[in-house]
What does this fold into?
Amino acid sequence: MELTLLPVLPDRGSLPSLVQELLREQNSLTAVEQFANSVGDHSRPAQAKYYQALLPAQPPGPGEQYAFEVDLDRCSGCKACVTACHALNGLDEHETWRDVGLLIGGTTALPVIQHVTAACHHCLEPACMDVCPTRAYEKDAQTGIVKHLDDQCFGCQYCILACPYDVPKYHAGKGIVRKCDMCSDRLSAGEAPACVQACPHEAIRISVVSQADVAADCEATDFLPGAPDPQITLPTTTYKTSRVFPRNMLPADYHAVRVEEAHFPLILMLVLTQLSVGACFVNEWMFSGETTPVLTSIRGWQMLTAVGFGFLALGASTLHLGRPHLAYRALLGLRTSWLSREIVAFGLFAPAAAACSLGTMFQSATGFAGVAVWLFVRAAVLVTGLAGVLCSVMIYYRTRRPTWGGTRTLWRFVGTSVWLGLSATLFAAMLATSVQSRLEFGTVMRELVALLGRPLMICAAVKLAYEGADLLHLLDRHQSPLKRLALLMTRDLGGIAIARFALGTLGGIILPWSLLAADHDTPVQWMATVTVMFVMSVAGELLERTLFFMTAVSPRMPGAVRT
Amino acid sequence: MIPAELRSLIRAVNGPFTSELVQQPSPFGLARLPVSAMPTATTNMVCGFCSTGCGLTVHLQNDSAIGISPTTEYPVNLGMACPKGWEALSVLNSPDRATTPLLRNNRGRLEPVDWPTALNTFAQRWRRIRDQHGPEAMAWLGTGQIAVEELAFLGALGKFGMGMLHGDGNTRQCMATAVVAYKQAFGFDAPPYTYADFEESDVLVFVGANPCIAHPILWERVMRNRHQPRIIVVDPRRTETAMAASLHLPLRPKSDLTLFYGIARILFERGWIDESFLQGHTTGAAEFQQHVASYFPEFVARETGLSTDLLEQFARLIHEGQRVSFWWTMGINQSYEGVRAAQSLINLALMTGNIGKPGTGANSITGQCNAMGSRLFSNTTGLLGGREFTNPQHRAHVADLLDIPVDRIPDRNSFSYHEILKGILDGKIKGLWVVATNPAHSWINQDQAKDILSRLEFLVVQDMYSTTETAQLADLVLPAAAWGEKEGTFINSERRIGVIRQAARAPGQALSDFRIFQLIARACGVDSLFRDWTSPAAVFQLLKKLSAGQPCDFTGIRDYQHLDQAGGIQWPYSTEFHADTADDAGHSSLTAAVQERRLFADGQFFHPDGRAKLLFESPRPMPEPPTVDYPLVLLTGRGTAVQWHTQTRTAKSAVLRKLAPLAVYVEINPADARRCGISAQQKVIVESRRAAVTATAFLTPTVAAGQVFLPMHYPEVNRLTDAVFDPYSKQPSYKSCAVRIRLPE
It folds into this structure.
């Protein structure tokens, strides 16, 4: 056969008009209108015939509640539940309320893999609810569903830190947290939650569980291999399986060490409140002994510095809130939330410290030193400041994250308070000297360095050693949370860790030592050295706090393969 | 009494955020939905990812598609969808969409041009190639991802219009083996089953298939099986499906042919065969029996690494099953001896009489949404409608039906995919038109493939995204409307024809592939040949005519509306069926028996003698076996249910992206890892004779020692694979090459 050829190109004058016509066609949706179902109102969702059997026949009675029940034998890891939840609940582009993880174990002869779907466990003792400062969580009395009141939330994200299952999700655009509510609107109308409707294998159902049984189960058994300790919140989800999991079942992401979120406003807020409180204590301590003219002349400035940083800290803390204009709602959670308590404590500390600083500035003029009210104000500063720092400690302790557990947070926060309290005092003295022409740098600074230099160096050395000791966990055989922390400090966060120790050593040990050892001649030398020392100390502590958050290895449900 | 507004300042139980998510009753029998997602109308279409062919209901709100849910009544998926289906709309909205034609300028950059410029360039450049190098220098690579009507248009335009000789599709990478295996065995490319068979079987054999991950909705149908089925999984890896099996045979990679011959021998030996079926409906049984006689269990056990006991159990389960079905996917198809391996399964079904009855069959699960449409109507390997280019009667018949001069139909077969690439390498092919596929990522031995594509004089890429690896190499990019933005039909794995609709607006100047072909026909001055090709619906009527009298006859389907009402219709569906089921008003509600049909119930196959052929051949050694230098066998395959092929589409959904590992990882057996000093999550180098890539080590006993597994979705994977092909189907053997693994220096 002779091959066909393209004919001679014709006059293509009609091409642009055909383009226009086809573009017009492409943009009209008439074809779809022709076939669309725009009528028809079914009283009942069509899918009901599939999910009817996956819902309980009766609502929960007294002492009972709804719970997810997952048949692991039927969960094949397709993740349709995640996308259905996303689609049918109108979540934002990146938002997901359910996740599917993977457990792997066994031997080469008999390997075992198990996908695990999980959402909110609607716990008997929801940590999210307990820690919420605005009371934006409710556990429904009838259904047991843990609901988040989106309009009540001010976006502090404390619940995210507290939930061992990584359930509440922050929506940055709205400045609030949102989470699974077991599709309670659907459920109350006899319709299945999105995940239940969408699981092709009927692996998820809603069951009614006895709360006493849930508590008893949590006491006796593992919730699921690789999942966090159920004792923390008493999760109600049931994972059923006919398989016997080998002892070495581990989450697929077990060896993946992940960097946690840094929360920069919180870093600033914590370090600076501790600086401020620390400085107030140093102030009291300096004057508890023999007063000298030098000390008297810098006292007011020292308090002023403390207060300044305190207010800076409070300002930073509001940046952390998704909806700062609702900050007043923090008062609602006083009964249960350490965050509420922290806010109240620092809320009282700031004006008390401000009053105290003003009083100190004008003390000699007014001469009210010794008046009972004045003593009361000074005591209030110390009490509220200490309470605030301790509340901060408790906020993190309460999350039960192992890296924040025991006394780990306490020593860090106290250490920062002392270190920066001393350092800030030297800095304040420098400031005071530079604005009061009658003071002479050499005299003032030598006296203060002699008083504070050694405690500062000791405190810094002890704190750095305490933090550095975490690296010993690299030797752990077990991939414990603290080993993960150590791995993060040496790998992903190695740069931050090196900078932290370098700044800390310079600002906390070497420069104070140089102040003690070498005599400076000019004001500029004093000013420069003290400022650098202070800035380095603060920067070092900010980095320490950054590591504090970023290495806060959080418990979570087994995850999928991570790269 | 505190006013409500004041109270809500303190404690806001309700408010805008809360009401935004309240799930309210929705019309059309859908689930309750939040107000923002409440549809004012819906329309149904089949999914555009895989060949399962699920029905999806697109939710429309004032003319725009705002959501999707699986269609409850569609007979394929019964109200369920996998994550890709749920996210099918979100992948349409992406900054990576091609919104205007792009032409490579003098500085080598792709720059936007208008359609007339693009079309004139297209026509002139092809014409220049044809004038200088002849029609053999022109080729296209198509797809299984666009509608049947579009594929037919592309094939007809390419060959009958522009005079190209060579065209092939990416279905070569997934289905070619099954096509050839069926053609040779049954006389026509005819997967015999219907999805109801998953529910009817009492023994299901899955070979090189992991439906839990690759076809979750087919696994749904298995899970609905109420006959307590025994599930046998033949796969080197312990997959999700293997976990769910009653019997897992973790055979050595590429020992499948030996295994199935060994099983055939046991069945013959024990007399566990359907003698009367073999006598009455097949040819080659005696020769086959003779061929397998030497496959003693001990030999087979040695070759496959399985125990003789396992072989015995396997054979016994096949024997004891009343309704045994054999299912295979890419583990068979993507092999250097895939055709014979597929036929070894067909042979098992034939010799045990497991064909043509509910719950039986030798069943290939297809890959792409329209792989079957491509097989029948892409006009590449075969002439339109499952015909042969080399057959003069076929050519005359098609010319007559389409009202075109018969001499426009080539009388020679096309080059297959790898021959086209070789043709480019040899300098014979100068121009290539790539439609809706991404060879620069997906083709085997990718570095070579990229090098080859860069040698072209003219590379046109027609795609919905302008950012694919292949589009980046193109001289001209034509922006295509995607699934959901155009109409047409797909044919799924079980031969079911389903409709797609234009429910969403295409971005910018993007046009449906059909409309692009219309424009090209005009630009090339051959539109007079395509006078009747005015719309997909019109072409559907042409395709019906082309199917008449063929095994795939669907002349009984009236139109798209008929397909919509019937929940898709399987071929064959001749006018006889239509007469049976349409009522006076023209509405048809198919009975279950008509809605789910299988082939060969009468034992009649499509060979002229009506018999099926048992075909066989001695297994050949693996082309690149492990050696001392490259001691590991590399297996590739699907990683998760949320990833599709080269992730061109699925990576555009934020949710799907979140649900899959971000970068490539390699599954290694812990023993191998120990030997190489590799610990979990370390970055390692996987190296073949062709390339070295870096991947995160994932230690798992599900991969046997001596093997490693890489998910194919990541672009670097096919840099490693070895360009070896099945001699009959020309399908690449993606699943076995030798690699080594080491820590980076």
